[in-house]
Amino acid sequence: MTPELERRAAEMRARNLAARSRQTQPPPAPTVDFVLPSIPIKRKIRLQESLADVDISDFHPALKSVRRVGGMETDRDGLIDLRATGVQIAVSPELIARAVVLCNAVLKGALKRGWMVKPGDSTGARLSVSIEGEQLDFAVEEKAEPIPGLHAAPGARRTRGPTGNLQLILGSGYQKASISDKRGTRIESKLDLFYEKGEALAAAIRAERDRIEALQREYQLAARRRGEIESRIRRLTGNMEAWEQAELIRRYTNALVEKAAGQGPILPESDLAKWIAWAGSYADRIDPLAGKITATPQEFWE
Fold it and tell me: Residue ranges of the domains in the chain?
């Protein structure tokens, strides 16, 4: 083989090896930009330092427990939760001063509208207000929403994070009234609406309770009427059975007298005469028709 042919054969072998090498190598992985979701980090604050610029000397007495709180740590949603003190405030550290001032403003405004304020305490009693006798829990909370990209196991609660939006809540059980920061409008400018919603909620709860109590009274009245009717039926059937028994006793004693008379006169002092007299008196005692009728008139038409 000439040198030229050897060179060409070597080049061909090299190209074949390179082609086989490219076929066996995996394709390059695509580049993906992945950003880890931001999870709330536990933070410690000193509450009094967060309230340093707030004059709490004239605050409503229901908030006096806040003054005694020292250091606190955010919960799993990144919020400072004061509910252990009886004051239902749960907000991020950046909003704690606003939330406390807002809570105080609501309580003072509530007193001007004639609402009663019941302070909470560390034993589990919640801060509440009473509107026309209806007691409602009162809370200042920051909305927390599930963090996108973080998923929870089936049945578990998704991790949440603060949104920066406050909300005021009045509630009794599942019935609630609330307002919140929306579209740049803060709660502070909507307190009159909050009071109106609270009074409407109290009226609705009272109306629902009155409706339920009326239904209960109707049920109790119907149950009492059913009991009276059942009692009358029992008395009726008892009277019928007693009357039938009395009639049977009289028929039997009459037959006995006729039988005995065929065998001779029945002497008044005899045991037979005494027994017949007792049987007749017993029949009269159990016979409901033997004495005065005791049924009341309504028993005949109800």
Answer: 44-185, 213-300
